[in-house]
Amino acid sequence: DSSDDIEDVSLFDADDDASRRSKKSKIRHPVASFFHLFFRVSAIVVYLLCELLTSSFIACMVTIILLLSCDFWAVKNVTGRLMVGLRWWNQVDDDGRSHWVFEARKVSAQGSKTSSEAESRIFWLGLITCPMIWVIFAFSALFSFKVKWLAVVVMGVVLQGANLYGYIRCKVGSRKNLTSMATNYLGKQFLRQ
User: Fold this and answer.
1) Where is the chain membrane-spanning (predicted)?
2) How many CB atoms within 10 Å of residue 17?
3) What count of Cα atoms within 13 Å lies in the side-chain half-sphere of residue 184?
4) Which burial class, exposed, middle or buried, applies to 66 when counting CB atoms under 10 A from its CB (0-12, 13-18, 19+)?
């Protein structure tokens, strides 16, 4: 049985650095914002243009999977921390039990956020939109009988979907909270009708 922990912790020493920076800057981490979108968009563009650029399926597949892997690592370990103050990982105890840990940055003493609205929008837009595009690619590959591309597309769905799921769990809370929120939302929609 795995246990979920949600902790309120300070990531790095970002609270101190962010409070010293100018409040005028809308994007406080432009390099992180760039790479958050770069690897995701690059993998999609390479997938779309691959057959036009080269006839080697292996070269295309390796390039796309490398871009997806770089994206997974960058989003999970860097951009999530810097842009929205969230992170997640799996931890195995001495007993061999697996625990998923989801963390959120503490709110500073002044009550101000250390991440900007623009960064938050960029982060969540990229995190939600790209997996949906890979799901569309999966259906397209399946229905057009491009079975060899299906493996690549499934990797895109899995890697980007895992990050999406992890960050939704960080933002919302435990699985019970996520289930109850979905149930409450559907119940409200049903009552409105």
Assistant:
1) 30-49, 55-75, 122-143, 149-168
2) 11
3) 6
4) middle
Burial degree of 67 (CB within 10 A; 0-12, 13-18, 19+): buried
Side chain identity at residue 139, one-letter code: F
Q: Which residue has the tokens 């590959």?
A: 141
pLDDT at position 172 over 80: yes
pLDDT, tens digit, for every residue of 66-108? 999 999 999 999 999 999 989 888 888 888 888 888 888 776 5
Angstrom distance (rounded) from CA 82 to CA 95: 33
Task: State what percent of residues in the chain have pLDDT above 70.
Answer: 76
> CA-CA distance, 142 to 175, in Å (whole number)?
31
